[in-house]
Predict the 3D structure of the following.
Amino acid sequence: MNQEFTLNAMRTIVCQDAQGAAKTVAGLIADQVRQNPKSVLGLATGGTPVATYQVLIEMARRGEVDFRQVTSFNLDEYIGLAGDHPQSFRAFMDEQLFGQINIPIEQTFVPDGCASDIDASCARYEAMIRDAGGIDMQLLGIGHNGHIAFNEPGSEFDSRTRQVELTAETIDKNARFFDSPDQVPRHAITMGIATILDARQIVLLATGAGKADAVRNMLAGPVVAAHPASLLRNHSHVTVVLDPPAAAAVTELQQ
Ligand code: PGA
């Protein structure tokens, strides 16, 4: 049984386990697409959403959700990796989701990590989101350091899609996807905090004990740029979905 509570105006659902959390998030996304088949989804990469994408793929195979008219915008991309580089977020999305559901690939957008003019490309990405009508539902993970997308600690509340430098901690955490840490790009393009907060609805998924402190800081710490996820408390429609280890430091606060 899921446990649900509201902490600092953030709806928080603690599921039985990580698979339950993936099913809950997939259910929220599927409901959004059923309600509005032309939904604009904001999507995320990383280890966390893989199980959610797997559930969505299974639902799509059973005919329970149809992505034909959906448009998607991904949060971020490494600078210097082309879309066909196996560690690019474009390749990740094609493999983990897009290639396995019926979304037309031309309706899926990921920032261009190889754009010749990065600033212009970032401005274009913002315009494309606006032209698509804005993001209806944004899926987010959270970094151990509280980052959302690649908005590292110190990212400003009014930041938009831009080039950023990754912290040593993020490079270290993401090295697991590469053959060696020195292959991890040092820079990325990321949607900004303000871009993310423009979404009509935000669903943040965190699983595992390693995220417990970041989740506590997000839900119960001060709202500060030093912990970018806490800035989500300025949004009125956020759902945080957790497994028990990720929720450990906040379920305590409920008792
Ligand atoms: P992870 O990354 O899902 O691989 O833990 C989450 C994030 O950094 O936002």
